[in-house]
Amino acid sequence: MIDRHIGRHRPEPAATPFQQFILKVHSRCNLSCRYCYLYTMADQRWRRRPPVMTARVADAAAARIGEHARAHGQRDVSVVLHGGEPLLAGPDRLRYVVRAVRDQVGDAAETRFSLQTNGTLLNGDFLRLFDDLGIRVGVSLDGDAQAHDRARPGPRGGSHHRVARGLAQLTAPEFRHLFGGLLCVIDLDQDPLDAYAALLEFDPPAIDLLLPHATWSAPPPGPPGAYARWLIPVFDEWFGAPVRRTRIRLFEEIVNVLLGGESAVEGVGTTPAATVVVETDGAIEQSDILAVAYENAADLGLDVFHDDFDAALRHPLTVARQRGVHGIPSECVPCRWARTCGGGLFPHRYREGSGFDHRSVFCADLDQLFQHIRLTLVSALSVKR
């Protein structure tokens, strides 16, 4: 039986084991980002969750990760320490979680750890800990100081100066190897090339440019196509540079699928979703981005004390996000980008009353962006002949 929110039943491919485990080590944050999907949108269950992941939850989650890796013969697994703001958990708790997972996975698989932070609390003590534990660090930075402070204020005003201070330490020679990259949410009020230049000042190895999370019932700011018009100049600058200074994952994955490959990120192509979340209370859930849709949208009714991750794999919501080409929304099937776009990010397809069987609320933007990148690739390949 398929939940009415997911769409009509279609043939189901074999389940793809989870490859990335997001551990919510702290469920609160010290910033009040204006676009935050977790705290300001439909799902407010964070209010009822404990702020910090306890040792008991960490131990159970670690055991489940090790169990899943061994059951599926996985060679490597990715563990992301997340929040809220994960640094609020403190160094002792972060160390405990990492060691618990490594102890439980053992030699069954290589375990790669990363952490996504807003950067305001990043300092030498944390960086020495991350160096000791082998944790790569991603930092959220929304372009230049003015735009960042407008989007990501703290209780005492803008946060850019604190993020820049943390990044200065992260990018110093001693810790540069820990730098995973920058995450930037698109702000239509900021000039795209100014934003790109501000990000490049920190010489990031990779940049994630993110669309603000939205649905058909809670649309994003700006008219259809505005995000494509923001992204295209950045793509042209990035693609046309004599020496490419960084990776931009959105662009790389679109190029991959247009050239016939597979995408490594959800929301581009039809690669099955292989990420699962463990909340601070031990609940096993789907992506927390589903908070934009409705209350409990990510809830699987499972927890690490009573359920293994295979139970999450069998859940209809997981199945819906692992159907590959069979999971393309009905109205997207005739589209020229059906297999390369895949309908866009799953939460962005939601419409109240009829669920997720819709094209992305950013459809017009994706169409323009795919078309522009395709034409650029055709032109570049023609020149090289």
Written overview of the protein:
This protein is α/β, with parallel strands linked by helices. It has one domain (20-384): TIM Barrel, CATH 3.20.20. 35% of the residues lie in helices and 14% in strands. It is built from 13 helices and ten strands. The chain has helices at 37-40, 55-71, 91-105, 124-133, 145-151, 160-170, 192-200, 226-240, 249-258, 309-314, 316-320, 338-341, 363-384; strands spanning 20-24, 76-82, 110-117, 135-140, 179-185, 206-210, 247-248, 275-278, 283-285, 299-303. A ten-stranded mixed β-sheet has the order 7-6-5-4-3-2-1-8-9-10. Helix 7 links the parallel strand 5 (179-185) and strand 6 (206-210). Helix 3 (91-105) runs parallel beside helix 4 (124-133) and helix 9 (249-258) crosses helix 13 (363-384). The protein starts with 19 loop residues before the first strand and ends with a helix. Residues 1-12 have low confidence and may be disordered.
